[in-house]
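HOLO CASE FILE
Compound: protoporphyrin IX containing FE
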Amino acid sequence: MIVSLDPEFTNFVLQQEKSFETWCPESFKTLLGSDNLLTCAGSVHKYTRNLILRVFGPENLRLQLLHEVDRIARTNLVSWVDRSSIDLKLSISSGRKSIMKALKQLLDEKQKNTERQERMDLLSLLIRDLEMEKHGLTEEYVLNVLFSIVFASFETTSTALTVALKFLMDNPAALQELTEEHEQILKARTNPDSGITWEEYKSMKFTSHVSCSYINCYIEGLRLANVTVVMFRKATGDVRVKAYTVPEGWTVMICPSANHLNPATYNDPQVFNPRRWKDISEPSGGSMNFLAFGRGPRYCAGAEFAKLQMAIFLHYLVTKYRWTLVRGGNMVLSPAPQFPNGFHVQVLPK
Ligand code: HEM
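Model generated. Tokens follow.
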């Protein structure tokens, strides 16, 4: 196995899908199933990725997911207020077996329901194609895709959000700036209690004069405490890279932190400084120096959805609530960000 700590080599590998296919260790396969989304290739990958992007891509984010996430974020935050302490870092507690059982039940129920609405959700789209016997889909593959989405989205999103909150709590000036940015949005509204509109969401993201916009905090948090610690690829043939040859069948383990903490790219790379992104346009699709969502043809299909969830949650948290640390909050990178004593906070209305 080759462990890549070289930014250029890493970028080359991630972008050359023909020379380096995705790969995962046996332990991942036990978890995700042998026939899974993260390692599938060719037309199956193309079909599944397109389907996921239809559900989690910009069009459906605007039409459907924005409102759903808005509703869920508000409801969750309201329920947090009644509790003396909540652990911010919710981890997946059930294993593959119980999640697969729950997904199978959901699939069966939805298949039985003949009065299904034409909705743009992943399960409905997959069932439609399963019933039409499109793309050779099997029930097992559909369940594995659904499980892969739970796996790829849940732990990553909750960790990324907890990490951003941790850095914001440790950097009160950045939190203050972020809060002011979001209060401006409320001031500009006729009804401060109405849900977030698409235009407001876009303004949160693209207001370039705001050095501490949520996206800068989010990206900076992920740069420092990367959630996807490693990515794997396997050489499909002998691949010549500069003066070296990567032999066929060899595995490459990519460590994004080597790019993220490179002092040649980032001044004081260990310091949380959202301002460093102020004049750099958001690295959509990944960049050589920012690989938190991967890069190339396997770039995270849920990246835009993850950013939307983060923006909405933070918007309500900083405009409507204040919070104090009750217990824990100590973060270690081992190598993924972890909170050994939990991260317990009390949330109170402003
Ligand atoms: C902060 C949150 C997230 C992070 C840091 C993250 C990170 C990543 C990374 C690094 C990859 C590339 C893996 C590789 O190249 O080997 C990836 C792929 C993927 N992610 Fe995410 N992800 C996040 C959230 C999500 C969400 C919310 C979803 C689903 C809605 C999702 C779905 C996927 C899928 C389907 C792939 C595979 C794409 C493909 O192979 O074409 N991710 N993610």
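CASE NOTES: Confidence is low (pLDDT under 50) at residues 91-95. The first strand starts at residue 2 and ends at 4.
CLOSED: yes
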